[in-house]
Amino acid sequence: MKKRILAAVLATASILGTVAGCDSTPATSSGNTESKNDTSSTTESKDEGKEDEKKEEGKVLNIYAWNDEFKGFFEKYYQGLEYEFELPDGTKEKRKFDKAPGLETLKGVTVKWTINPSDGGVYQQKLDTALQAQSGAAADDKVDMFLAEADYILKYTNSDFTMDVSTIGVKTLDTQYNYTVQAASDADGKVKGVSFQCCPSALIYRRSIAKDVLGTDDPAEVQKKLGSWEDFDKVAAQAKEKGYYMTGSYVETFRTFSNNVSSAWVVNGALNIDKAIEDWTTQADTYLDKEYTLADGVWGDQKNKQMFKDGKTMCFFGPAWYFNFSMKNAQDKEKGCYGDWAITTGPQEHFWGGTWILAATGTDNGTIVADIMKAFTENEDVCSKLVEEQKQFTNNMKVNQKYATDPNFGNAFLGGQNDIALFVELAKNIKFEYKTKYDQLLSEKYPEYMLDYFQDKISKEEALANFYKFVNDTYADVKTP
Amino acid sequence: MGKKHKSISYAKWGYIFIIPFFVVYAVCTLVPLFSTFLYSFFDYYTTMDFRTIGPNFVGLQNYIDMFTPDRTGAIDLFNYTGNTLLMWVMGAVPQVLFALILALIFTGIRLRIKGQGFFKTVIYMPNLIMASAFSMLFFTLFSPVGPVNQLLTMFTGAEPFLFFSDIWATRSIIAFINFLMWFGNTTILLMAGIMGIDQSLFEASSIDGATSKQTFFKITLPLLVPIIVYVLVTALIGGLQMYDVPQIMTNGKGGVDMTAQTLVMQLNRMIGGVTKNYGKAGALSAYIFIVTGALSVLVFKVTGNSGGKKKAKKGGK
N or C: which end of chain B has fewer CB within 10 A? Predict the structure, then answer.
């Protein structure tokens, strides 16, 4: 008996030890998985009101997403805040969104989130399964709305799984950036959803390192020295001499290049590697050989560690959501370097990501879905809160303009720089072109397979052959050389 | 009447009672098994725009594609088979040896180790942890910013060593995890095997003055052969299906130049992604089935357990 108790105690201890080990090790790299949200989770939140509901609206609002960014905004600004509404009799009154005129229906509706990480196409896979089962699913299990990224939005907008949102009363407004509307439209021009973000991407640099390397940390001056890829390469060499890395990941500049392609990943059913992608390949190879960067992914721990105060990396690339939502290490109170950052245009203009809200065909919550879409694009109160509290660059030009011209507005993380002012300029030039439904995995895997070549393990041809194999196995209908 | 009564066969009840199992087995296992095999003769896949192509009968085309060399002249299938077997051997050989030593220590009459229950529990413990959790733990341990590299940097002052950019480091870590997870299971099995051997044989040998070495090679090992064969065959079947550890360790990429890509990882790439290629995956499944069968037969032939028994009997008598 004693033996058994001893065994049980030790067994428990060893399990706990393992669990504790699991727990403490990743903690050293906390904040890295924030934007990827590595765990699948389904959470529910129930609205309190239990009064009579209208029959037309379903009782469960099913939302599919790949991280909890929008979930946070939704809970805070859609479910939580009070806004001024015009009542049917003309009077104005402050009410919560779910008590807005015509929306008393949201009372008693359960919001159900299904969140899966987007890496390796997991999110798409889960979403596809749900959408394909949509017609046979019970009303409460049907997907009502889901989020999609620029990399694969075309797949959904051009399918019958998304619905024309004009049928549920969502209008396209002049205040929305054109490319966001274009991205949400199908081949016939029917708009299938809206985006609550506009995502021009900037060069994000460490002020202190820029001062050391370039002698200035003024965005305009830095831009002059980093305005082209030739200059960028030159500065990379200077940074290396002083013991710095130019970028923290060999994939860091990939988005900038891949956003400036002049042909798509797949042309006429065949894989196509654009010249811009070739240019990136050359650059990444050089940068790794000369140790201007690290052999880590965009979301890698090694790169994210570079955001700490003792990091040696000068440049990062990303839109507003990146430096406010994903650079948690830089914002760390003890080890971070809050305020030691600034943004500028960089060598080439580009955009990255963006979250579109699409309405799923067959939804039984059309009114609520439409209302959510309007709240995050039309409602200036919500959009202003997104800018002020969440540091978002919204898809409402009017709101953005208000902050861009406000001399008192600044982002403390960027040392008080008005990031909205720069983004307003960059947003004007965003084009949504040369996109295919295949983009997410091609853009994710191409750099990964080329890394073996960059690290001189195999030849470029062999690395390409491995990439082609991936393409053949994943997309049976895409031809490779 | 009386005669008729006597001839009632109760055997039919036996058959009736096992019907549910066979029905479930047929529906859940046999049908998918045959449909997988059937699909391997078809061009049958889904695309990114939610279309399903096929099934169009293409004969042996999927099999021919599978054995066609790629641009660099290599046949990927052999590469993946090789990786799988290599990583299995790297884990299974130390696994069986280590387990055998442990089993001998625990069952040794002369040693009489105390706290056996405790040690057995501890040895078996790794097997209770999910392979994916194990993999994540090791992935973090050996990452460029992980503890192993922190120690390396601290003591040698060198740059972090990129374990997952090194072919053999990656393979070794994968093999080591498999070893760590399964040696406990093997130990328990071998211990049961050793304890199943007639104690009088050991006593007789010690009376005859046999050394420990002689006892092991002349008595324990020959009589343990059936168990070892069982362990090897089950380990082989499990090893050929190696998936979760390398998948997580290499983030689904298959390691440097696909040197850690296993057969089931390849299967997953065809059937578990954003699109599904039922035809090609069917052909690959059939291949894995045949390879597993062939290798299992080989293990039986090589170990030839009947010969072992005869020798042991001679030694015993």
Answer: N
